[in-house]
Design brief:
single chain; alpha/beta; Rossmann fold; four-stranded antiparallel β-sheet; 10 helices; 13 strands; 28% strand; binds adenosine-5'-triphosphate; AAA+_ATPase; DNA-binding; ATP binding; SpoVT-AbrB_dom; nucleotide-binding
């Protein structure tokens, strides 16, 4: 290979192209860039997030899945503004989650994101009615005048109607079913019209039929209000209902399943086609699914070949293989 010294004109062109190249995630609503979160307890370090990359576009409804301990809740707590990463970058709706002041963080939690927890009891105040629970975040974010109180009550009813639970307006949490409580929790989270709804196992305590109703409420919020929604779930039914499911493994995004509808031209039948992708990070790192590498006995070192339209990855067949 011959190398030539670049001319000044080459360097100028290169510098200009670097400057004009869009930054990673410039058009995403949520950008996680090499996110790291290390917890230290009793001198032992746990790397909960190990350089996680994730982009979520405005208007998406997506699911995050992964084994217990893979880092899902850690990521959600960071995106919710409840925890700060050790390193890397995280931006949501134009706000930098690492450099935010305490005051910005509070405003962020009140107006930019809405959060729904798995435990129904954690989402609502037990001594307030559904309408009062929904009005509370509006009161905390704004004024408490008589006109605003009327506006808050109207907005509460509007949200309860949208999520098909207007009957719950004057009921306290113990007078509602688990599914109704979670739908009210979604209304509470939507009260200040956030850009993003984050939900950590929102259907974890519910039976599958009730879970379907709760998931339908998320879909309504996404379709009717345009809210971007990220749901952490173990529920295969929920994960199978969204267009995009991202899997987290060992603190990194590993694979992604995209689903799209296809209509058969002759029969008119609509089927959902799902395809799995692996994530390639900017350093060129790729995490191969364990079942693929195990099936071919791949470990430590693999052979790579660049083909015209793909890269072949084969088990190590070198002579000094041990
Ligand atoms: N506050 C903390 N202090 C110490 N270690 C923590 C803390 N929070 C999480 N971890 C550790 O970080 C790793 C990731 O945990 P995390 O709760 O994010 O996983 P998860 O994917 O949400 O799991 P699950 O599905 O069981 O909720 C685990 O090893 C966990 O023990």
């Amino acid at each position: 290979m011959t190398t030539t010294n670049p001319t000044l004109a080459d360097l100028t062109t290169r510098a200009r192209s670097t400057r004009t190249r869009p930054t990673y995630g410039h058009d995403a609503l949520i950008t996680c860039d090499r996110l790291v979160r290390i917890f230290t307890t009793d001198g032992i370090e746990v790397q909960a997030l190990q350089g996680l990359d994730l982009l979520v576009r405005e208007g998406e409804l997506m699911a995050l899945v992964g084994a217990s301990g893979s880092g899902k809740s850690t990521l959600m707590n960071i995106l919710a503004g409840l925890d700060t990463p050790t390193a890397g970058a995280a931006r949501v709706a134009g706000q930098d989650l690492l450099t935010m002041t305490a005051k910005d963080r509070l405003a962020y939690r009140r107006t930019t994101v809405g959060f729904i927890w798995q435990q129904t009891s954690r989402n609502l105040l037990p001594y307030l009615t559904a309408a009062q629970n929904i009005a509370l975040p509006m009161q905390l974010a704004g004024t408490r005048s008589r006109t605003s109180r009327r506006a808050h009550a109207e907005r509460a009813l509007e949200l309860l109607e949208l999520l098909e639970i207007p009957d719950c307006r004057d009921r306290r949490p113990h007078q509602m079913s688990g599914g109704q409580q979670q739908r009210v929790a979604i209304a509470v989270a939507l009260a200040n019209d956030p850009a993003v709804l984050l939900a950590d196992e929102p259907t974890g305590e519910l039976d599958s039929h009730t879970a379907e109703h709760v998931f339908a409420a998320f879909r309504t919020a996404n379709e009717r209000l345009g809210t971007t929604i990220v749901i952490v779930t173990h529920d295969a039914a929920v994960a199978g209902e969204v267009r995009r499911t991202v899997a987290i493994r060992d603190g990194r995004t590993s694979t992604e399943v995209l689903r799209r509808s296809e209509v058969d031209e002759t029969t008119g039948h609509e089927t959902v086609v799902a395809r799995e992708y692996a994530m390639l990070d900017r350093a060129g790192r790729l995490q191969l699914p364990a079942e693929y590498t195990e099936a071919l006995g791949m470990r430590d070192r693999v052979a790579l070949e660049l083909e015209p339209d793909h890269i072949a990855v084969r088990p190590d067949d070198s002579e000094d293989r041990t």
